[in-house]
Amino acid sequence: AFVVRLGYFVHAVQVDGSGVAVPAWDASCEWLLDYVIAEGASIDAKDGQAFAELNGAFSVHPYAREFFQRVSGQMGYPPLILSVMQSPLDVPTESVSLT
């Protein structure tokens, strides 16, 4: 198994009437992902951990976005929307044949 722990922490501020940023709220969340390898599968430990860490971040991020949007709104603040996570990999700008 390959385990990944991912945590998010947000410290929000709001600008008061004199233009000074003052703390508004803090929120955090944490996920624990446990990737289990099928019985009989042969995966190098280094490759498996790399897979878990990269895919874990992309798997969890939509849930973190929803969490902070929902919680900030429930606290009476404008919904906080985290940006969409971008791939660190280069994306081809033209079609590529895989055959």
Descriptive terms for the model:
two-stranded antiparallel sheet; alpha+beta; 1 helix; elongated
Architecture overview:
By secondary structure, this protein is of the alpha+beta class. The chain contains one helix and two strands, in the order ββα. It has one helix at residues 45-74; strands at residues 2-15, 21-35. The longest helix is centred in the middle third of the chain and has 30 residues, at 45-74. The two termini are 33 Å apart. The mean pLDDT is 88.
Mean pLDDT: 88
**Proportion of residues in extended strands:** 25-35%
Separation of the first and last Cα atoms: 33 Å
- Encode the helix/strand succession as letters: EEH
List low-confidence stretches: none
Helical run tally: 1
The profile of the biggest β sheet is:
2 strands, antiparallel
Strand runs, count = 2
* Overall outline: elongated
Order of strands in the sheet with the most strands? 1-2
Computed structural class:
alpha+beta
Rg, rounded, reads 19 Å
Structural topology:
Layout: E1 2-15, E2 21-35, H1 45-74
Antiparallel strand pairs: 1-2
Summarize the model shown.
The chain is an alpha+beta fold. It has one helix at 45-74; strands spanning 2-15, 21-35.
